[in-house]
Structures are given as C-alpha cells and as structure tokens.
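sry for the spam today, last one i promise. struct tokens for design, 183 residues
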C-alpha cells in the first residue's frame, strides 16, 4: 500500500468527509411531484431552451463585451472554392465569423463532426455569409480586419453525410485573400 493513502484516509475521516457513490445520470433521475394541486402555482423559472435535436448545447455564454470591441465591416475581401473529394460544393453557404471564445467552441465541435446549437443573434451580426455558385466558387467583400473562421459544409458523396470544412485566416483592411475549402 502506498505510504500516502493511510494519511489521506485518516485526514478525510478526521475532517468529517466521506466518499459518496455517484448517483444516477441526470437523465435517469425521476422527479415526483408531491405539491398540492389546489395550491397557487409559482411562475415557471426561465430556463434556457433545449438545443435542437442533433445539436450540442453551448457551454460558452455569448461574450457581449468581446463582440462589441470588434468591427463589423472593413475593406478586405475573400474568395475561394468549396469542394470535397474533388466534387464542387454548389449552392452552399460560406460563413466568415470572427475568432472569439464563443465561435471557438462552435469550431471545435464542428471539427469533431458535431453541430452546436444556433448562434446568438448578436453574434450573427458579425458573421458574413455568401452562397457558392454551381462550381463551388464564392466571394465576399467589405470584411473587417481580424482573425476569422471561414467555413462551409457539403454532403460527402462517398457516405451521404454533411461534412464541415473550416479554416482560420487573418485579414487586414484592403487585403484580398483566396481561401479554398477542400478536402
């Protein structure tokens, strides 16, 4: 037995602590209502709505101050092509979103193949979108300077699953950048 285990157990018992077995996962806890049905009811508490089916709930709250410090427009432009396994992503959306703690969480989930719940409408005011043409080409003008995630998604012809392609770029005012989203 390790020499540190006995003092640790002795310390826990002297401190009045005890080890408790974990309970059932939250989704398996049964709630039994024992309230009087004739008693006046309190207003329901304001809870965040559950995420849409198939989407992961956000853990990072919208950082209003972080976004308020970002410009919404500028003179940079971005063009490129969306493709997967050589197949062009025609009539798909390309999004350019600033790199923030909020968008980084969504990007992390997207790269892992999970869709995160929809963004707060305040974040959408800083996101620039364009549609690709039939050959997967797109172009965006009036972008502000800064660090951005450029993303697009399309159905993978090999397995029928929608796949996200994401790149991080840095833009300066007046810069023209080509970003090809391909795998």
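last one done:
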């Amino acid at each position: 037995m390790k020499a540190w285990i006995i003092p640790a157990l002795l310390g826990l018992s002297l401190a009045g602590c005890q080890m408790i077995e974990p309970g059932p996962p939250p989704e398996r806890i049964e709630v039994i209502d024992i309230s009087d049905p004739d008693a006046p009811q309190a207003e329901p508490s304001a809870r965040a709505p559950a995420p849409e089916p198939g989407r992961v709930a956000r853990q990072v709250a919208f950082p209003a101050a972080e976004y308020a410090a970002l410009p919404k427009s500028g003179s940079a432009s971005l063009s490129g092509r969306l493709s997967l396994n050589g197949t062009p992503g025609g009539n798909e959306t390309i999004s350019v979103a600033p790199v923030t703690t909020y968008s980084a969480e969504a990007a992390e989930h997207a790269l892992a193949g999970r869709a995160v719940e929809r963004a707060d409408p305040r974040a959408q005011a800083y996101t620039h979108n364009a549609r690709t043409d039939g050959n997967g080409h797109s172009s965006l003008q009036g972008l502000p300077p800064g660090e951005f995630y450029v993303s697009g998604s399309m159905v993978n012809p090999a397995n029928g699953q929608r796949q996200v392609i994401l790149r991080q770029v840095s833009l300066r005012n007046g810069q023209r950048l080509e970003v090809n989203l391909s795998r």
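Confidence is low (pLDDT under 50) at residues 1-47. ok im logging off now
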